[in-house]
Amino acid sequence: MPDIKLNNIRNFIFDGLNIEIYDKELLAVIGPNGAGKSTLLNIIAGLVDYDGSVHFNGVPVNTMATRERQVGYLFQDLALFPHLDIASNIGYGLAVRGDAKKNIKQKVDELLRLMKIEHLRIRYPKNLSGGEQQRVALARALAVSPQVLLLDEPFNSLDIQTCNCIRQEIKKIHTEFGITTLLVTHNMVEAKEMGDRIVAMNDGEVVEVSDIQDGYEYDFNRPYDMQHCSGCTIDCNCKK
Amino acid sequence: MEIRNILTGLIPIIVFIMIWESINRMHVVPDYIFPSFTEVMREGWHLTSNGVLIENLVSSLLRVLVGFLLGSLAGIMIGTVMGCGDIINRSFHPIFSLLYPIPALGWAPLLMIWIGINEMLPIILIFICSFFPILYNTITGIKSVDSSFIKAAKTLGASDQKILTTVILPLAVPNIFTGLRLEAGMAWRVVIAAEMVAIPTGIGALMIQSESLYRVDTIIVCLMVLSVMCLVFERSFGYIEMRMTEQWR
């Protein structure tokens, strides 16, 4: 899995952003609305225009189309294809790459088992609960064996129980597969619990980078910490 | 419940036919101006058994099918290109916006001069009638596809062509079918008008010939056939759309 470097990134939000994401780490990105968190993910995925350079393992990927970057992206609104059943949604990435039907079925079965959603195989997204949709979207992102996993506020619309459950699953998957992962979140507790490091962003700039493993403690009185914590749905320390 | 629904729809029709029949039997209006329902049915049977109705219906049907098929295909294809390409859309939108408001039959005099009075005339009129609404419905359908689905497909490795065929067009189907459903009925209205004005065969031509012979019963039979054909066409597209999208909409 790659070490990702963003050098001197400039676009409508960033003005010379530099950031490095280490191989196999889970980097939590926090910050208020409009800080540029989702844009950061979109730049790594190649979904928005930018100046500067993005490197995967030292190789520049600027000219590489999104489909060649091998990223797994869990969108904030999940973006499950409504016209495809769950098995087809999960197998979509493999099907468009021309994988054999047998391989697709095998991989889909494996992911349905991993995410514990075998019973949903022939159902359509509109008939699924928020938590189930989340699992399907995660399975779909993992199906293409991504080098990088981009998670854009994946727990936003979930209840506390489902949120905790999926959080653990993502952590487990990250540990198991060792995929370099970026997690954008509003929730400080979530960032601390899941991230190996935390990047705090505000107004298109990296305000702070901290290493959770070093026992770093956030000062929750800082404005960029407090702002985004207003949206927490779970028992969040920053509200105390 | 099903039987009750059918009865609810049938009863007004039966009442309407009874009133129609009663008015005729009261001899308020002469038979040749306002024939009874039974006389109309008798004439319908007569026209069917001697082949006149079938022959004219087939002529109209073929024109509708060819014109509508070509107009729809062109509308969907050009609509897809315009819906996907902003520059093409911006370039062609003004000219199509100017042409769209012209009623299909408004082209008839010009087409009579350009191509003459022949089989092509109603077909081209139906083509024009179907093309523009289906074009706009296709563009709207494509433009209304949520960009997050396109982004998701890109991250999953889909090429632009795959995104078009596996995400954009399937999601635009409801809009495209709205256009097809509405224009399927409209194509019949246009073919009848074109046949009345310029073509010697078809249901429209039969109606205009009947008018000159004062055969109100034949005209009413033709109107009934027209009504049924419009309904069948519209309902068929509604049914196909429902079958294609019912699971996910």
Task: Walk me through what this model shows.
The complex is a heterodimer of chains A (240) and B (249). Chain A has 240 residues and is an alpha/beta fold. Chain A has helices at 37-45, 86-96, 101-114, 130-143, 160-177, 188-194, 223-229, and strands at 4-10, 15-21, 26-30, 51-56, 59-60, 71-74, 148-152, 180-185, 197-202, 205-211. Chain A is 33% helix and 23% strand. Chain A has a 6-stranded mixed sheet with strand order 6-7-8-3-9-10, sandwiched between helices. Chain A has a 4-stranded antiparallel sheet with strand order 2-1-4-5, with no helix packed on it. In chain A, a hairpin with a 2-residue loop joins strand 9 and strand 10. Chain B has 249 residues and is an all-alpha fold. Helix content of chain B is 82%, strand content 0%. Chain B has helices at 2-25, 37-49, 52-84, 86-99, 108-115, 120-143, 147-155, 160-197, 203-212, 216-245. In chain B, helix 2 packs across helix 10 and helix 3 (52-84) packs across helix 4 (86-99). Classes of the chains: A alpha/beta (240), B mainly alpha (249). The A-B interface holds A 45, 47, 65-73, 75, 77, 79, 81-85, 92-93, 95-97, 124-126, 140-141, 143-144 and B 146, 148-149, 151-159, 162, 166-167, 170-171, 173, 245, 247-249.
